[in-house]
Specification:
This protein is an alpha+beta fold and about 675 residues long. The protein folds into 6 domains: about 100 residues, Rossmann fold (3-Layer(aba) Sandwich), CATH 3.40.50.20; about 70 residues, Dna Ligase, domain 1 (2-Layer Sandwich), CATH 3.30.1490; about 130 residues, D-amino Acid Aminotransferase, Chain A, domain 1 (2-Layer Sandwich); about 100 residues, ATP-grasp fold, B domain (D-amino Acid Aminotransferase, Chain A, domain 1, 2-Layer Sandwich), CATH 3.30.470.20; about 120 residues, Glycoprotein, Type 4 Pilin, CATH 3.30.700; about 70 residues, RNA polymerase II/Efflux pump adaptor protein, barrel-sandwich hybrid domain (OB fold (Dihydrolipoamide Acetyltransferase, E2P), Beta Barrel), CATH 2.40.50.100. Helix content is about 25%, strand content about 35%. An 8-stranded antiparallel beta sheet has the order 14-13-10-11-12-15-22-20, sandwiched between helices. Strand 28 and strand 29 form a beta hairpin. Helix 12 packs antiparallel against helix 13. The longest helix has 24 residues. The radius of gyration is 29 Å and the shape is elongated. The structure holds adenosine-5'-diphosphate (ADP) (2 copies) and magnesium ion. The site of one adenosine-5'-diphosphate has 12 residues, from strand 12.
Length: about 675
Amino acid sequence: MFTKILIANRGEIACRVIKTARRLGIKTVAVYSEADAGARHVRLADEAVLIGPAPARESYLVIERIIAAARQTGAQAIHPGYGFLSENEDFCAACEAAGIVFIGPPVAAIHAMGSKSEAKKLMEAARVPLTPGYHGDNQAPDFLRTQADAIGYPVLIKAAAGGGGKGMRLVEQGADFLDALASCQREARASFGSDHVLVEKYITRPRHIEIQVFGDTHGNYVYLFERDCSVQRRHQKVLEEAPAPGMSPERRAAMGQAAVEAARAVGYVGAGTVEFIAQQDGSFYFMEMNTRLQVEHPVTEMITGLDLVEWQLRVAAGEPLPLNQEQLSIHGHALEARIYAEDPAKGFLPATGRLVHLAPPEESAHVRVDTGVEEGDAISPHYDPMIAKLIVWDVNRDRALARMLQALADYRVVGVANNIEFLSRLTACPAFAGADLDTGLIEREKDYLFPAEAEAPREAWLAVALAELLRTQTRADRDAAGHAEPASPWHLQDGWRLNAAPRRRLIFRLGEVQKTVDVEPLGAGAYALVLDGRSSRVSGSLNPRGLLRAELDGLRTSVTVVQAGEKRHVFAHGRAWAFACVDPLHFQSEGSGTEGGLLAPMPGKVIALVATPGARVEKGAPLLILEAMKMEHTITAPSTGTVQAFRFAVGEQVGDGAELVEFVPEAVPA
Ligand code: ADP
Ligand code: ADP
Ligand code: MG
């Protein structure tokens, strides 16, 4: 076995490989770009080598730099992870030439499976069932059109070198074929450097079922059963599971055998995945082979109890496969959800930003979190926007679904848009829960998955207000502790002001809805909150991570309220709402309206004057930004009005309660 390996990757997969290597007593070397200098994989590895600037083209994809890093550190083998150079035959060959073991298949196998067309030719010879279509060398547009006509529409045009769901065009009728072909070829040339295409029959309502295979250098092959990856968006996987619902033992053996034949046909060594497209009647066709460890390999690990990275390392070191086919079995059911920094409501648009609060569910025998980031890290625009993979296991699918829902409800991310709520809906959606699977599920269920923006329940409004009160009380207590006169009324944060009723008013905004909460302290940490004309008795405690244990009108509940700038992120029952605190701690006497100045919520430094003095601003418009407690706080307009003047300049320190802005609200027509 190796004593030191280099991992030519980043993010969760680099961390994942390091974990197994460490368990086996193997030293690890990370490589990193300038953007990843502080990344988790760099922190976890025993050694780390800088290989270039942020763009992958100048770092993670530069073969010579990675080989040099391995040489420099004396690594005996390189694990390529997935993506980047993992399926690059030149990289595999360069490792070989440098006398370094490539932890993956031989060059010839990568080459054979690198082109979807060539792979289909080989599979045809190995009698593996193929999706009907044309995968020959003649690329003349009119000829391809004739082939498509013969296959029958709809057809799919695919880039032979494609991957990652890119370079595919669905053609519904002959008249559209040539335009679609030209556009597919343009994208293929730009993304993969080759415009070679193949044409396939488009299978309607298909399932994506893939088989994990393993080969060793002694000619042994096994299959580690299947994964169902039918739930996709833009032909990319979102939720994966093992085993595939509804799979019969006979079908499993047939698909497993076909996958092993595919691997044997190319002299495959190590971990690989043979992807099939399956019809609702169970018939299946070879789609492609991925010659690497797959993103979703953990679901296979959970149902087999094996560590596939350990198997990869053993095989690469020349050992035979640890188990034969008869020794392998399936135990229970596993699901994986890919947590992405993306906005599902905006067409899954990728998002970037800093993870200001990151609280994954607790790991256990049932819950596993594979991630490459920690709280405070950034999701940068340079790489894949995956935040983590959440994997759950239980004895059957229904219980695994329940585990997934709970784990997603416990997963809290603040700072970047993410798909956690979407994944909760997906997991709960009757079609998925009922295993009515096909690759069109997300599109078909969009009414369920993308509901119109629902109002937050009263509980959420009460929770956000209570958390605000408890937080300011804690701060007041802390300030008072260091003060000579702890009993001074100036430390009471209950709205006490000379010549004013003991009332305090909090204002929150959620989307377009703004609500006022009137506060009456009842003593001993309890408050009466008047919201929507109704009074509720609330009390509770708040920990520094935002966990609020509350009693709301006699009902005990646990909610999380995370503060980030003027935003208050409320997490309850698997849902999340981002409230804006319109003017935190803006004390005012009842009926005084919003005239007068806006006050500093806490001591801090003015870091930006956003509004222009004299200009009219809308309600909620940012006026000024204050930095306090290492956070930015935006002071916003309490109503439509005019900023008369700023009382401080950028860089000036302000005291708690200092008037920051002279603001004149616009008269509201009665
Ligand atoms: P898997 O097939 O293992 O489930 P994906 O198809 O999602 O994984 O691809 C795995 C990773 O590899 C992705 O995160 C993506 O970054 C990367 N990847 C794969 N193929 C491509 C490609 N053609 N272009 C860009 N990235 C790719
Ligand atoms: P990639 O290399 O991008 O992963 P694949 O050939 O594996 O490309 O296809 C990706 C996805 O596209 C599949 O998981 C499936 O959802 C869909 N797909 C591929 N081929 C077909 C087909 N012939 N009919 C219908 N859907 C298909
Ligand atoms: Mg694929």
